[in-house]
Amino acid sequence: MTERVSGIAASDGIAVAKAYLLIEPDLSFKKETISDTNAEKERFTTAIEKAIGELQAIRAKAAESLGEEAQVFDAHIMVLSDPEMIGTIENAIENDKKNAETALQEATDMFIGMFESMEDNPYMQERAADIRDVRKRVLSHLLGVKLPDPASIDEEVIIVAKDLTPSDTAQLNKQYVKAFVTDIGGRTSHSAIMARSLEIPAIVGTNSITEKVAEGDLLIVDGMEGTVLIHPEETDISAYEKKAQAFASQKEEWQRLINEKTVTKDGVHVELAANIGTPKDLEGALGNGAEAIGLYRTEFLYMDSAELPTEEEQYNAYKEVLEGMEGKPVVVRTMDIGGDKELPYLELPEEMNPFLGYRAIRVSLDKDEIFRTQLRALLRASVHGPLRIMFPMIATLQEFREAKAVFEEEKEKLTGEGVKVADDIQVGIMIEIPAAAVLADQFAKEVDFFSIGTNDLIQYTMAADRMNERVSYLYQPYNPSILRLIKFVIDSAHKEGKWAGMCGEMAGDQTAVPILLGMGLDEFSMSATSILKTRSLLSELTTDDMKELAEKAVTECQTAEEVVGLVERSLNKTT
Description:
Blueprint: E1 3-6, E2 8-11, E3 14-21, H1 37-66, H2 72-80, H3 83-96, H4 100-116, H5 122-143, E4 157-161, H6 166-170, E5 177-182, H7 190-198, E6 202-204, H8 209-212, E7 218-222, E8 227-230, H9 234-255, E9 271-276, H10 282-287, E10 292-297, H11 299-303, H12 311-324, E11 330-333, H13 361-366, H14 368-381, E12 387-391, H15 397-416, E13 426-431, H16 434-438, H17 440-443, E14 449-452, H18 454-462, H19 480-495, E15 499-502, H20 512-519, E16 523-526, H21 531-538, H22 543-555, H23 560-574
Parallel strand pairs: 3-4, 4-5, 5-6, 9-10, 9-16, 10-11, 11-12, 12-13, 13-14, 14-15, 15-16
Antiparallel strand pairs: 1-8, 2-6, 3-7, 7-8
Helix pairs in contact: 1-2, 1-5, 2-5, 3-4, 4-5, 12-14, 14-15, 20-22, 22-23
């Protein structure tokens, strides 16, 4: 019987495929005394052989896409072939009559503790992480439990998970992953943003999808309505295939605008830019008619590496994007690590509230050797295209001044070394902390531009975690208090002759776009898949009408619902 589950529509599109559960299995076991030690040792040996075979297959596949980084699997295979560790486990089975699971757990705990205590030897400390990984794999074979492995997916599936981390999502191959559905998350969660970058349908915040779906169940995902159908009937499949065709036709119509400039009905040009995470995302940005890159999230350079990326590695990545945009501007955000973006090789403190803690510019200014490496790579790359550097999570003028001073120092060093650096690099800040928004008139005197990061600005202003379903009703982009902050930021920039952009998801929100146009926003940066439909919408709007709309939204409306009603009435009148 068909079951319908609703969630938050996070990425447009429709998909029909079997479910792939990306869920950590239960690897708990009982400590038992065994009598047949030979049979137990054989069971353990079989599990080891299966784990090694699995790792060899994964390593071969990873070598195609990851290159040198696939060597991590060589380390895992070495651990499973280590005679000392294997001998310790077999002795525990033979002499102490322990079951294989217990012997494995106790021996690996001993080796992990030994390696982790070698604080002056990072290489040996990393081996502890390898042992944890392979233990999980061997345990899964001993217990007869399948481990999820998104990198090995080789058929069309819909991913079902409690949540997807940024690194999980970055590994998804859109050739096979047709959509994903999660228990938690919102439209601005990183998994949702990545889904829009990958151009695959996504539904988040269903609360219960992992409880309702079994591996291999047939699903229909409607990323426009936020609906999942489990065990759909043939009539459902037929109806949704027609809806998918209609959506494809609409996309074809938008596609005609790919080489057009973004111009309003009365001839005013605004810049539509794309948010990207890696140089690979350039194809999607250009394929959707981006006039710029409004946000290059450089943290994925750090997250996709087993160690801090070198200056040369970063330079090559920035150069690739700048050259790929062929003279169009690129806004690069410096490392925004912290919050929900952790680096296993960079020890960050555990915090009660990491989103309000040690992250982004706060880490960069504290660990300035990492910051300086990134700035040097950016400065060297600046000769390959119009570069704009943006500092994230700025709360005070002092922070901006300190970051700008480091930038100037590294620029001076490079030019002193005879390295060519562009002389027209713009340096700006991301406005995502209310303190910076309220002081925008003062910041505007010192920065070259603002880019408003509404994803965090809204949650900080409303004191509501955007990932918490219980307070999700408070995540209100259209609340007049949010609109007033945004208008003040834009007005402050213009007063000093600077430009103001927006790189939060609100920039591509079809209800917000008319208001933002009326406020005079200069640059709208969004997921690439939102660009063409936003270009289409803007072509139907006149700036004078939208100025009037924005003024009413800010001065006359008291609630977010009133703002939505005002926009709907205005658009109906316009179109």
